[in-house]
Amino acid sequence: MYQGDKRTNLLVSNALTIGITVVNFVIRGINIWLVGLIRLHTISSQLLVISMSIFIATFLNTGMVLLLGQANLDQTALGFIPFNGAYKDLTESWYINIGPALVSAMLLNSIYIYLDFGIAYGTKFFFRSLD
Amino acid sequence: MNLYSGAEHAIHFKYATILNTVFVTFTFGLALPMLFPIAAFTFFNIYFLERLCVMYFHPSPPLYDDKLNAQMLSTLKWAPVMLIFFSYWYLGQPQLFANLAVARDYSFDPVITKHTAKPYMSPALPMFIASLMIMLVFLLAIFGITKRIRKCCSGACAKFGIQKEDGEFFIDENLGSYFSNIPAFDRKNMYVEEVRNRLNLHVKTYSDYSANQLRTADGTKNIKPMLSPYTYDLINCPDKIREFQFTPIKDRQTKAEDKLNDLIMLTLYTGFRLARKGKIEFDMGN
User: Fold this and answer.
1) Which of B26, B104, B186, B255 would bridge B109 by S-S if both were Cys, CB 3.0 to 4.6 A apart?
2) Domain count, chain A
């Protein structure tokens, strides 16, 4: 039973970490595409809007979804908001289950730029080899 | 050409990554202190990879204005505010910091922490005071009182000689004429390109006056040479040069390159050649 719970927790935690990173990557692509459709007048304004939109979306996905997605606001003044998650407060369980997922997600985020570079360079290398 | 050049420099998501790292770290940092060294590691990685990639991988990026930087700095100012508000909640958790335990009958009963927004003597108290002060500043800013206070203070400082009085600034950057501010080497290249176009392709992209200025302008007195594309001419814009796979005359090495670039020029200026009979000229201005 204990080992089963441990495995489930580990699985959920890892799934959250990878899920956050993948969704962040998808959000980035969607934001760049959507802002491109606005056709802003200068490259600087376009970059500004893209940066801010990616930041807001990834911050909501990385930080706020983890915090609010598992929150339970039933017994608070904000009880009218329909959040019925497992954590009524930042309890010990929150630190055990959600904390490590967030730390891992940020750790993955810190080395993600190398993966990104690898993908860009790898694609170029592949097509150059074909040429 | 595109295949063998590096990927385009995408600065937007790097900025977004930095902001995201800062905000997530400041939001959860007090609860999960491990996030601070991870953030430092992220910044080191970004710095390290950016230095290498800008030097060796990306083609030279366009010149960005200061809008992006200013916006990022102004957004970063809000991160400590997040830290203070969220820290108050984290540090006020009586189960963790006041050693309070509420008994449960069954393991599946909800955990009662008795955590409220009411302040009590705990590590959260300084955060509560700081939060109140921030909210007070917000309120004052909403009613425009902070502006008045700032104005009043700067007036008082000016009166006592602590600070210079605000006045109108007249800035004289001592800039020369438009032509003299184009870097000499680029100006000469533009002139050579123009002469070649006129002789070989019968395309005239500058007026005689402008072409003469390109040839004769004195570039020795300029103190701030222009860095961005000098004209709206497509072949002067780095992005368009790459997209059209155009090689400027200074970089050409073979006759085959000359022929290919002549073809690109002719294609770009087809409309101009057709309108030539109407004596339409592109003029960069006098």
Assistant:
1) B104
2) 1
pLDDT classification of B186: cutoffs 50, 70, 90: confident
Q: Identify whether residues B220 and B274 lie together within a single domain.
A: yes
CB contact under 8 A, A62 and B24: yes
> What is residue B286's predicted lDDT score, i.e. its pLDDT?
41
Tally the domains of chain B: 2
Same domain flag for B123 and B186: no
Instruction: Tell me whether residue B6 is in a domain.
Output: no
pLDDT at B26: 94
Asked whether the whole model's pTM tops 0.80, one would answer no
Domain that holds residue B83: 12-151
Interfacial residues of A (vs B; Cβ cutoff 8 Å)? 28, 32, 42-45, 47-48, 50-52, 54-55, 58-59, 62-63, 72, 88-93, 95, 99, 102-103, 106-107, 109-114, 117, 120-121, 124, 127-128, 131
Long-range contact set of residues A61-66: C-beta below 8 Å, sequence gap at least 24: A61/A20, A61/A23, A61/A24, A61/A27, A62/A20, A62/A24, A62/A102, A62/A105, A62/A106, A62/A109, A62/B20, A62/B24, A63/A102, A63/B23, A63/B24, A63/B27, A63/B28, A65/A20, A66/A16, A66/A20, A66/A98, A66/A101, A66/A102
Nearest beta carbon to residue A44 from set B15, B68, B95: B68
Question: What ipTM was reported for this prediction?
Answer: 0.86
Q: What is the pLDDT of residue B278?
A: 52
